[in-house]
Amino acid sequence: MRVIGAFAHGIIDYAMVIMLAVGPSVAGFRGKQAIICYALALVHLMLTLITRFPLGVSKSLPFPLHGAIEFVVGLLLVVLPWIANFSTGTNSRNFFIAIGVLILVIWVLTDYRSRRSAGRATDPEATVR
After folding, report:
1. Which residues pair with 62 in a beta bridge?
2. What is the pLDDT of residues 42-88, one digit of tens each?
3. Residues near 86 by Cβ (< 8 Å), separated by ≥ 6?
């Protein structure tokens, strides 16, 4: 059930950037985990800015490819605490797992291929039919 359209996904993406940027302060972790989180916020911002959807700026990356990248990132975030050897840091481990699961849930719920999303991405004046 794909209930999130391109415009709503863009709003969620920008909110995700903010969550990643403030996550270390709110969740109470620092060090390499925080650096990874800040880098991820920057990468997610860049990905959102270049995506061909209503809230993208340069609109050079197809929205379905954006979705594929988010799927891979979501999976990687769930296992990142063990890959990067910080699984014993409960706050950071739980934060990265939660963000990874959230990204995967958003991926499942987003309609990356709808005609409506594609039309709205190329024509900001297009109306929902």
Report:
1. 52
2. 999 999 999 999 999 999 999 999 999 999 999 999 999 999 999 88
3. 31, 32, 33, 92, 93
